[in-house]
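Chapter review: from sequence to fold.
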Amino acid sequence: MRKLVSTILLLALAPGAAHAAGSFRAVDVHLDTGKAHLGVYQIELTYDRARVTIVGLEGGDTVAFKKAPYYDRRGLTAGRIKVAAFIPRSVKSKDAPAGRTRVARLHLHIGADDAEAVIASMKVRLVVAADPDARLLEARAELTALPRARKEEAGNE
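The token string follows.
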């Protein structure tokens, strides 16, 4: 077991490992529907693929969008990714979120560049939003970068 752990650590920390340079950051996707309840959404996120790799996606804050959203796997490294989710049948329409809601979190690996500038250059566009009865909604999409964790909290980066 020790030999296995040592081998994994050696490979992970070896020069030239994919994550050796740069940092890991997270970005939240919020949708604001005003007073309307959100039932389904699709967004498109664009980013510089030479500087960013999306390494994970997770769901939002509410029960309605807790499950990780659907996405095109090619978008993880392509510079453009479409992300979508809908309320599962187990969630009642009255429990659909309204107002400003975090619907997803993206985990990023950013190359050796200035992470703040790279994140600021990312763009999100709302493709569609609808209520639980499939009526189209006016909504606004925005990205919010999470603060970088301190090294003692985050461990080795």
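Two observations follow directly from the output. The domain at 21-147 is CATH 2.60.40.680 (Immunoglobulin-like). The longest strand covers residues 23-37.
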